[in-house]
Structures are given as structure tokens and as C-alpha cells.
Specification:
Helices cover 73% and strands 4% of the residues. It has ten helices and three strands, in the order αααααααβββααα. Strands 1-2-3 form a three-stranded antiparallel β-sheet, with helices on one face.
């Protein structure tokens, strides 16, 4: 008779959260800053299915409290027109449903899928606009320094790089925030799948930040280098986009290599069980 309560719960969830879910799916498809959600959401579902159910006691009281909190968060965020908390309330409601039917241990077993779903929610506009400008300036400084290192005359004004005959604008789209968000999500996923130590997972996530920033600075440098020595069209259109994708793949390789190294170090530090020997 558990099927009927599950159907009622599912119908209530759809009615309550269909609007934020539809907006989230639209942003995943149309907003480049949120495109990583198209990868994280299916992976989260697959990981939860692969992990399966564990032995755990349902906790109806805690589940109901979480569901009430999610409903209040959903209503308050809609009144305030705040999309991030509205979408986050869906995750809280999912946790509440799992706790109600399967217990806290099941949530702990599915910690990685739940965190991936949180990471799939786009950051608030206030946060992205606050982070984008410093990242633009840092990428501009790194790119200008590398151009000077290659003996190219450079004049840097904020996020504008002047080289002889050309002017490069490091716009918000070139700030590296998009690649930083995607790399942090991938680092979190790799850490959860490959690494068993908490310190190794935290280190991998922290290392993803300088890797993303450095690669973006190199991207600015390569753009200026190709524009100056090869063709001004190398800094726009398809070539500029291709350059960005190639460097993002380099970032992925670096994150993967770092994760593999940390996995090797954690395995080598784990003491092997002693095998008892005896004479017959």
C-alpha cells in the first residue's frame, strides 16, 4: 500500500515545484552560465540509482519538518522573486521526502547526488555580478603580463588591453566565471567518485580555483598573441570560441590529473591489512 502515498507525494511535489523546476530547466538549456546543470542533474540521478537503498529507519517527524521548511522557503522566495532560494527549496523538499520514507541514513548515502543537484542551481545574479568584475581584472592583468613577457607592447586600463593596432576587451563573458563554476562542479564530482579522504576532496576543489583562473589568463594572452601576430579575426567569432573550448579541455585534463594523483597518494597512505601466516 506504499504506492498510493508515493503517488500523492509525487503529485503534490509537481504541483508545488513545477514552476521553479521549469525555470531551472529553461536556464540549463538557454543560459551558458548554467549549462553545467545539463550534466550534473542526470549524473546525480544516475548516482542515486546506482547507490540504491540502504538499511535505514524512516523519520516521519524530521521529514515533515523539512517539508514544511521547504514549503515556507518556496513561498517566501517567490514573494521576494529570488530564484536561487526558490530552486533550493526543491532540494530541501526532496531531502524531506527521503527522510520521511527512508530515513537520515539514506540521505547520507545519497550525499553526492544531493550536492550535485545544489551545484546545478545557477548562482544568484548578485553573486555572479560581484565575482565577474574581479575575475575580469585578474584575467586582464595576467594576459597583459604574459604579452609583455613575449615583448609585445601593452597598455592595460582596467579590463581593456591595448596592443599596437588593436584593442582587446575582457568582457564579463570572458571573466572565466563560467569555466570556474563548471570546473568546481566537475572537481566536486571527481572528488566524490574517486577520492575517499575528506582532505583530498577539499584540496581538489580548492585547486580547481587557481587552475581555472590561470587558464583564463592564458586564454586572454593567446587571444592577444594571435591577434597581434596572426590575424585580428582570431579574437572573435568561431576561432575565439574554439580557443576557449580547447583551453577548457586543458583545464579538465589538469583537474583529472590532480584527482588521479590525490587518489594515488591516498591509496599509498592507507595501511594494508596484515596477512597472518603460520606453519602447517
Amino acid at each position: 500500500m506504499l504506492l498510493l502515498p508515493l503517488l500523492i507525494t509525487g503529485a503534490a511535489f509537481v504541483i508545488l515545484f513545477r514552476h521553479p523546476a521549469a525555470l531551472l530547466a529553461r536556464d540549463w538549456w538557454t543560459n551558458p552560465e548554467a549549462g553545467h546543470g545539463l550534466l550534473l542533474a542526470p549524473v546525480a540521478v544516475w548516482l542515486a540509482w546506482k547507490k540504491g537503498f540502504v538499511d535505514s529507519r524512516p523519520n516521519a517527524l524530521l521529514g515533515i519538518l523539512l517539508l514544511l521548511g521547504a514549503i515556507l522557503l518556496r513561498a517566501g522566495s517567490e514573494l521576494a522573486a529570488e530564484l536561487f532560494t526558490m530552486r533550493f527549496s526543491m532540494i530541501v523538499a526532496l531531502v524531506g521526502v527521503v527522510v520521511y520514507y527512508r530515513g537520515v541514513q539514506q540521505v547520507l548515502a545519497w550525499w553526492l547526488p544531493f550536492f550535485l543537484m545544489v551545484l546545478a542551481i545557477p548562482l544568484p545574479e548578485l553573486v555572479t555580478s560581484t565575482l565577474a568584475l574581479p575575475l575580469q581584472f585578474r584575467a586582464s592583468r595576467m594576459g597583459a603580463a604574459l604579452l609583455e613577457w613575449r615583448h609585445i607592447p601593452v597598455r592595460l586600463t582596467g579590463n581593456i588591453i591595448d596592443i599596437p593596432g588593436h584593442r582587446l576587451f575582457v568582457t564579463e563573458a570572458c571573466s572565466g566565471l563560467r569555466s570556474l563554476t563548471a570546473l568546481l562542479s566537475i572537481a566536486f564530482l571527481m572528488g566524490g567518485l574517486w577520492l575517499t579522504r575528506v582532505w583530498a576532496r577539499a584540496l581538489l576543489i580548492l585547486l580547481a580555483i587557481p587552475i581555472a583562473v590561470a587558464i583564463n589568463g592564458i586564454r586572454v594572452f593567446l587571444t592577444g598573441f594571435l591577434v597581434y601576430f596572426v590575424d585580428p579575426k582570431m579574437g572573435e567569432g568561431f576561432m575565439h570560441l574554439t580557443e576557449g573550448w580547447l583551453l577548457f579541455l586543458v583545464s579538465l585534463v589538469l583537474i583529472g590529473a590532480t584527482a588521479a594523483l590525490l587518489a594515488y597518494l591516498t591509496r599509498s597512505r592507507t595501511p594494508k591489512p596484515e596477512v597472518a601466516t603460520g606453519e602447517i
